[in-house]
Amino acid sequence: MTFTLDADDPVFVAGHRGLVGSAIVRRLRAGGHRNLLTATRDELDLRDQAAVRSWLEEHRPRAVHLVAGTVGGILANSTRPAEFLYDNLMIHANVVEAARHVGVEKLLYLGSSCIYPRLADQPIVEPALLTGPLEPTNEAYAVAKIAGIKMCDAYRAQYGCDFVSAMPTNLYGPNDNFDLQSSHVLPALIRKFDDARLAGETQVTVWGTGRPRREFLHVDDLADACVFLMERYDEPGPINVGYGEDVAIAELAEMVRDVVHPEAEIDFDTSKPDGTPRKLLDSSRLQQLGWQPSIPLAQGVASTYEWYLEHVAPRAVG
Ligand code: GFB
Q1: Nearest CA to 98 among 190, 196, 14?
Q2: Contact status, residue 210 vs residue 253, Cβ threshold 8 Å
Q3: Inter-axis angle of helices 81-102 and 49-59, nearest 10
Q4: Active site residue 86
Q5: Contact 92, 106 (CB under 8 A)
Q6: What is the pTM for the complete model shown?
Q7: How many whole angstroms from 268 Cα to the centroid of ligand 1?
Q8: CB under 6 Å to ligand 1: residues?
């Protein structure tokens, strides 16, 4: 069944300052939405059950994009498992329950491709969920994300809530986190090559062996898919959102090097973890519904670097 939003219907984007939330805000505004509800962390701590309930009671959204969470790359995930588990479990539970309580008509919950077993067959299909052990470096985050999917499904089954779960592959784009300790690989590489360029250095160190393969989707494509799914999709269980191709980390490093600092040489720090050997989603269900990504990786890397130069590099230097 199609779910249609009018331009003045209140839509809550939970997590609007993050990589994904800010892209959804851009996408909804570009589509003519005039009634977006947002709250900064200072205004509303999504881990606080009473605060979330009363905020939703006051603002009464018709629809919710639940894209808030404590997120990070392989190092942050493996060194801060308690935060990743607690923060995300609380955020999912509070927002989903408060959304039911105030009668939200549609909620889109965003998970992550790390919910699937470490050694799932590739490309990964949705029924692979809970068929094998998780990748240890992000088990805490994955368990919280799986709980979020199961909450949406349980609320659909018991209360008839139209809450859906989308599983994106690795994301990148404007408003990403470029901090080397907590970021994902793509923003980390942009920063490392740019720092080396500015310092006149030619050696850049990439973590791990460079052999793991990852699929990267530009966040503007993801935001478009989220809006599409909110309108057209109403089933239980996860639905994958990917680009359809993966690259080895070494190839990605060369791609970023060629854009940012072509003279640089790459070496690998094999004392750092590789994580899952390969993560490529099978997104054919989404394609069959009629959605396709539109931003090729090389184009997305170049535009993200431009964004970095304009918004992050000046702060890093100054
Ligand atoms: O992006 P990333 O941190 O996330 O790392 P995951 C991907 C691969 O890039 C790993 C390598 O093999 C890293 O070792 N890598 C190379 C680097 N250089 C760097 C670097 O400078 N920084 C980083 N961060 N990686 C995360 C999960 O896994 O993916 C989360 O931990 C989430 O739960 C997210 O699912 C999408 O793809 O390994």
Answers
A1: 14
A2: yes
A3: 40
A4: no
A5: no
A6: 0.97
A7: 14
A8: 73-75, 77, 112, 114, 137-138, 141, 170, 183-185, 188, 206-208, 212, 214, 249, 272-276
Q: Please count the residues of the chain.
A: 318
**Gap from CA of 76 to ligand 1 centroid (Å):** 9
Per-residue tens of pLDDT for the chain, all 318 residues:
799 999 999 999 999 999 999 999 999 999 999 999 999 999 999 999 999 999 999 999 999 999 999 999 999 999 999 999 999 999 999 999 999 999 999 999 999 999 999 999 999 999 999 999 999 999 999 999 999 999 999 999 999 999 999 999 999 999 999 999 999 999 999 999 999 999 999 999 999 999 999 999 999 999 999 999 999 999 999 999 999 999 999 999 999 999 999 999 999 999 999 999 999 999 999 999 999 999 999 999 999 999 999 999 876 654
Side chain identity, residue 255 = M
**DSSP letter (8 states) at residue 103:** T
